[in-house]
Structures are given as structure tokens and as C-alpha cells.
């Protein structure tokens, strides 16, 4: 890095242990792209919310030639983010993926996606779900991958999926889930 790593804590006391973890993960970022100009990490502990507890927010701003790449975990979507180390892990994992994508674009590599695939929603959770194809292969998807209203999806609904392989440690991941309009048995008319 051309400029030293910047670390800021908001709404919480400075922690040598948290800073050490940030420095460790920031040092590893250059494995994905060796021309990082700057890196700033902000860890914020917002005030306690009723039943949710304190969900840590982590923002990472990575300067590369000609632009800034930003990982913004401003709205934590998991109660696991009550642990600052889990919030850091998730933010730095996202930064790793962002830098890998940037490096591919700089090299001129094109990320290939399979053509859309038909599937059926099999499981739904608050922030993610799973769909299966005709061969019963399972694909993970995040709520942000859904075209339309995530809350209206139910098991049994038919979807069109854009799938990438090798992107997730849990196997193939659907980066786009688009309902076809054929609804599962869980939807009620009327």
C-alpha cells in the first residue's frame, strides 16, 4: 500500500485486539490485487436497539488506481454481527471478492455466467434461501439476488436463476433469482 492503513472506531473504545485483526486481514488484501493505493477501515458500534442488541457496522474503503472500492456493511443483516469479529470477517470476505472482481476486470478477464436456469425455491430464511434445479442440485441465494420482493417468495415458487460456480464456499450460488410467476402451493389466492 502506498499510504498507511487507516483504522477508525466510532461509538466504541479502541481495541488493540480488533486493530490487530484488521491489520492482519488488510495485509492479506494485496494477495488479490497488488496495486492498492490506500485502505481505510471504520468499525462502528451503534447504540443498542431494543431486541437486536448491538450490531457492529464495518466499512472498508480501498483505493486503487483511478477509483475507490467500497464495502459498506452499514446495515448488518445478521445477529451474528453482534460479535465484532464476525462483522469484520464478513466485511473483509466481501472486500476479498470485490478486489478479485476488480483484478479480473483490470486483466481483461470476463466472468462467465451460465445461462439462466429454471428452478424451484426449496427453503427460505430471513436473509437467504435455496433453490433446486430439475436434477435436484441445490443453489444458495441471498435476498439481494432476488428480482422483486424477497418477502413474497415461498417454497415451491418457480424461479429463473443465474448461477456462478466457485464463488461460494457452500457450492454454486445464484446471483440472480427472478420469479417466473408460477407460484408454489404456499401462496393463497383471494
TrEMBL record:
Keyword Ribonucleoprotein attributed: yes
Coiled-coil region: none
Region entry Disordered, spans: 170-190
Organism, scientific name: Minwuia thermotolerans
InterPro entries (alphabetical): NA-bd_OB-fold, RHF-like, RHF/RaiA
A GO cellular component entry from the record: ribosome
Keywords: Ribonucleoprotein, Ribosomal protein
Protein name according to UniProt: 30S ribosomal protein S30
Amino acid at each position: 500500500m502506498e499510504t498507511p492503513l487507516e483504522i477508525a472506531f466510532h461509538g466504541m473504545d479502541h481495541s488493540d485486539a480488533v486493530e490487530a485483526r484488521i491489520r492482519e486481514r488488510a495485509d492479506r488484501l494485496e494477495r488479490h490485487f497488488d496495486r492498492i493505493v490506500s485502505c481505510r477501515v471504520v468499525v462502528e458500534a451503534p447504540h443498542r436497539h431494543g431486541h437486536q442488541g448491538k450490531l457492529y457496522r464495518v466499512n472498508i474503503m480501498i483505493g486503487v488506481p483511478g477509483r475507490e472500492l467500497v464495502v459498506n456493511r452499514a446495515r448488518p443483516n445478521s445477529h451474528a454481527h453482534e460479535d465484532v469479529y464476525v462483522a469484520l470477517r464478513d466485511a473483509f470476505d466481501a472486500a476479498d471478492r470485490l478486489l478479485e472482481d476488480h483484478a479480473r476486470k483490470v486483466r481483461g478477464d470476463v466472468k462467465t455466467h451460465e445461462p439462466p436456469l429454471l428452478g424451484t425455491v426449496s427453503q427460505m430464511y430471513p436473509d437467504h434461501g435455496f433453490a433446486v434445479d430439475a436434477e435436484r442440485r441445490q443453489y444458495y441465494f441471498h435476498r439481494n439476488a432476488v428480482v422483486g420482493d424477497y418477502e413474497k417468495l415461498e417454497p415451491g415458487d418457480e424461479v429463473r436463476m443465474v448461477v456462478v460456480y466457485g464463488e461460494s464456499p457452500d457450492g454454486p450460488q445464484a446471483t440472480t433469482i427472478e420469479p417466473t410467476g408460477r407460484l408454489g402451493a404456499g401462496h393463497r389466492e383471494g
